[in-house]
Amino acid sequence: MVLKTELCRFSGAKIYPGKGIRFIRADSQVFLFANSKCKRYFHNRLKPAKLTWTAMYRKQHKKDIHAEAVKKRRRTTKKPYSRSIVGASLDVIQKKRAEKPE
């Protein structure tokens, strides 16, 4: 059985069915709060980004790094390039490669 959870409009916390406080504004916009603390802060016009326990604050201050996908590092490969060997120049080596073996 899957429970449909909703998110608190202030704190970002999960709200399970039958829990939370629903507030409907005069412009018929619906807000769902996890508890009276969230509702009170919302009505006092406090910004959730300034309160350390809210999801918005944690996201802005990069506190939940383990939850985010870690960016994979790419390995840089060395590009092959031709080099002359001691005693033979690069031209000589390339001529020998071009010759057909007997």
Automatic annotation (TrEMBL):
<dbReference type="GO" id="GO:1990904">
    <property type="term" value="C:ribonucleoprotein complex"/>
</dbReference>
<dbReference type="GO" id="GO:0003729">
    <property type="term" value="F:mRNA binding"/>
</dbReference>
<keyword id="KW-0687">Ribonucleoprotein</keyword>
<feature type="domain" description="TRASH">
    <location>
        <begin position="8"/>
        <end position="46"/>
    </location>
</feature>
<comment type="similarity">
    <text>Belongs to the eukaryotic ribosomal protein eL24 family.</text>
</comment>
<dbReference type="GO" id="GO:0005840">
    <property type="term" value="C:ribosome"/>
</dbReference>
<dbReference type="InterPro" id="IPR000988">
    <property type="entry name" value="Ribosomal_eL24-rel_N"/>
</dbReference>
<dbReference type="InterPro" id="IPR056366">
    <property type="entry name" value="Ribosomal_eL24"/>
</dbReference>
<dbReference type="GO" id="GO:0003735">
    <property type="term" value="F:structural constituent of ribosome"/>
</dbReference>
<dbReference type="InterPro" id="IPR023442">
    <property type="entry name" value="Ribosomal_eL24_CS"/>
</dbReference>
<dbReference type="InterPro" id="IPR038630">
    <property type="entry name" value="L24e/L24_sf"/>
</dbReference>
<dbReference type="Pfam" id="PF01246">
    <property type="entry name" value="Ribosomal_L24e"/>
</dbReference>
<protein>
    <recommendedName>
        <fullName>TRASH domain-containing protein</fullName>
    </recommendedName>
</protein>
<keyword id="KW-0689">Ribosomal protein</keyword>
<dbReference type="InterPro" id="IPR011017">
    <property type="entry name" value="TRASH_dom"/>
</dbReference>
